[in-house]
Amino acid sequence: MGVVVIDGSTVRSFVEDEEQFKKSVDERFAALDLNKDGVLSRSEVRKAFESMRLLESHFGVDVVTPPDELTKLYDSIFEKFDTDQSGSVDLEEFRSEMKKIVLAIADGLGSCPITMVLDDDEDNFLKKAADLEASKLEKKASP
């Protein structure tokens, strides 16, 4: 377990490092593309969000949401990502929407730092942002 402290500037810096951000988003896309066809289907996007349990819990407490309501929520998320309304999400659409989401997180954090406890093997964008910031600080500190 590790503890990281980040604020909006840390997250924004991660997005602005186009090479690192693109690499991270592309890796996440590849992991979500279960059938390796180069696009994300509605079910692949839903499985990704179900695994995060964002819609079934509130501050770590399970919330009972009717299945039809969950389906509507997952469908609306998919439609937000599927900007060309092709019925699937390609890599460019995924990159674009993830950038918007992560920048919205940065804006929400602003200059107020938050402390996060993360598993060392946890792989998420906020941890990657903190790791990138730490590596920059280490480089500055090195002679």
From TrEMBL:
TM segment ranges: none
InterPro entries associated with the record: EF_Hand_1_Ca_BS, EF_hand_dom
Coiled-coil annotated residue ranges, if any: none
GO molecular function: calcium ion binding
Annotated signal peptide: none
Domain called EF-hand: residue spans: 20-55, 69-104
Name the record gives this protein: EF-hand domain
Organism: Arabidopsis suecica
